Amino acid sequence: MSKKNLISITDFSKEEYLKIMELSRQFEEHPNQSLLKGKVVATLFFEPSTRTRLSFETAINRLGGKIIGFSDSNSSSVSKGETLHDTIKMVSNYADLIIMRHPLEGSARYAAEIADVPVINAGDGANQHPSQTLLDMYSIKKTQGRLDDINLFMVGDLKYGRTVHSLLMAMSQFKNPIFNFVAPPELAMPDEYKLFLTNQGIRYYEHLEFNEIINQADIIYMTRVQKERFIDPVEYEKVKNVYILKNEMLAGTKPTVRILHPLPRINEIHTNVDSNPKAYYFTQARNGVYTRMAIISHLLNLQ
Amino acid sequence: MEKQLNVSAIKDGTVIDHIPTRALFKVIQILRLEEYDNMVTFGNNLDSKAMGTKAIIKIANRYFEDEEVNKISLVAPNAKLNTIRNYEVVEKRVVQIPEQVYGIVRCFNPKCITNAENVSTKFQIINDKPIEMKCYYCEKITYENEIKIK
């Protein structure tokens, strides 16, 4: 039997997205399970990511599994010069599933080739972070009751932000999405994604102004402008404060609109939004645990 | 007018013509001709009506399968192969860009795992004119002007 991995969001079919949504719902209803009892999961974090690691480890604990691993490469044999190849080969002897975060792009696909057990990519550099996309989709499904006919506003760094690229690819699988991109020219959605949408016959609009156009939105997906992506610090200073969501901007928006953010936030969502019922980013993070339980359960055929 | 060959003729083997001058040594590298024990002659910066200047390689007693020679299309997309038997051209072929490329090319992305560990590269050709190839690992696209031979 061939093993299943989750490396890129496009590894899953639409049917699998829907299965993950349904399993996430069931796990949210019954979060404590023993489906992973007697199984060992390795969480290999070659670079620190506390939020993602804790979310995955909570998911494993709630499923009744045991965890081995490390939370940064200084506490692993990498610091002795071991190759990724050898680390994965070794861990694959011990664990039933490998969850890996690594700074190099393509490292997760490579690990999946080497490992005898399924691999989940918990982020490979600026490339892919598919569990984030699935939890974003689950948050959309949960708040809007559907994944079809969603008017999705993406705001901020649309050039380098991997979460918006993956979410765009995944939501394109559903009926009649409308994409609205709000970004300065320096951080505009790359042409390859716009070309993809055009070829699929999917509508998209680009905006420089962040104003009442958001009144049409079902989902406003905010992103952080990451300083480390800029070669020139002056360029960063120019764009860092351009798009900040403030509570008063939400006055004319739909009552059902929800604001998502992959977190951590810096200043792109004013704290006065936090108490607005349209703010959903902290609940979104909690949804991540159920979605990750669903991904693990799906890859290991636990149900 | 006396006609003289810039690169002497071979009795049997393969002539690879219409190689861009800057790609000559890349073609030699891709076909591993530096390890070949028979006679290999080449010329560079030769006059060409079609290309201005060109390079040519003549390889004695060696014939290529399509799969092997198509690898050079990444650096010499207009190269032509002449199969020579007893000083006569018995077959002419053009190279074709393959759908997948294994090894040979380096991924342009410095953060790709294939540039950090001993991993053989794999690419899917997503466009052939100009060449655009997508890395199987990091999913980034290497464009024709960025192609570097491993």
Q: What does this protein look like?
A:
- The complex is a heterodimer of chains A (303) and B (150).
- Chain A is built from 9 helices and 9 strands.
- By secondary structure, chain A is α/β, with parallel strands linked by helices.
- Chain A has a 5-stranded parallel beta sheet, covered by helices on one side. A 4-stranded parallel beta sheet of chain A has the order 2-1-3-4, with helices on both faces.
- In chain A, helix 8 (233-239) links the parallel strand 8 (219-222) and strand 9 (258-260).
- In chain A, helix 1 crosses helix 9, helix 2 (50-62) packs across helix 9 (281-299) and helix 5 (130-144) crosses helix 9.
- The mean pLDDT of chain A is 94.
- Chain B is mainly beta and 150 residues long.
- The mean pLDDT of chain B is 91.
- Classes of the chains: A alpha/beta (303), B mainly beta (150).
Task: Name the features.
heterodimer, A: 303 residues, alpha/beta, Rossmann fold, 2 domains, five-stranded parallel sheet, four-stranded parallel sheet, 9 strands, B: 150 residues, mainly beta, five-stranded antiparallel sheet, four-stranded antiparallel sheet
**Uncertain residue ranges of chain B:** none
Strand content of chain B: 35-45%
Shape label of chain B? elongated
DSSP summary: helix tally of chain A:
9
What layout of secondary structure does this protein have?
The complex is a heterodimer of chains A (303) and B (150).
Chain A: H1 14-29, E1 40-45, H2 50-62, E2 66-70, H3 84-94, E3 97-102, H4 107-114, E4 119-124, H5 130-144, E5 151-155, H6 162-171, E6 178-182, H7 191-200, E7 203-207, E8 219-222, H8 233-239, E9 258-260, H9 281-299
Helix pairs in contact in A: 1-5, 1-9, 2-9, 3-4, 5-6, 5-9
Chain B: E1 13-19, H1 24-30, E2 40-48, E3 52-60, H2 66-69, E4 80-85, E5 88-94, E6 100-102, E7 105-106, E8 122-128, E9 131-135, E10 141-143, E11 148-149
Antiparallel strand pairs in B: 1-3, 1-4, 2-3, 4-5, 6-8, 7-11, 8-9, 9-10
